[in-house]
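User: What would this chain look like folded?
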Amino acid sequence: MGCCTGRCTLIFLCSLQLLAALERQIFDFLGFQWAPILGNFLQIIVVILGLFGTIQFRPRYIVVYTVWTALWVTWNVFIICFYLEVGGLSKLIGFVYACYVISIFMEEEDSFDFIGGLDTYSYRQPPQEHVELKPVKPVGRTK
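Assistant: Here's the prediction, encoded as structure tokens.
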């Protein structure tokens, strides 16, 4: 029996992650949701980078792969807890979204006058009484 080193284990885990990400990507293409497709694409790129770093002994690539994997697992745990409504996450997110929607509708827009249509001045500013126009004379032309 052979001894399995840490390098062989990491190559095996990267291969499993790559297969799972490719399978997830195929099913996400069927649903036409672009955010998961882009996320899975980034996951595939980073797993290939980690696999390359493991095979070629590139520690920076392995560190990037490790940090990304930790963030990816954290995000997936959050999504699972959100969908299972663990700890009231869906209520918290709903409240934050409701506050955002209310703040959008409460903003006042001063660039449109509902009575007169699109004007060059706002209804809060009085129009100028007299605008002086001066003719434009071409410079450098003499007859």
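The chain has a mean pLDDT of 79. If you want, I can go into more detail on any region.
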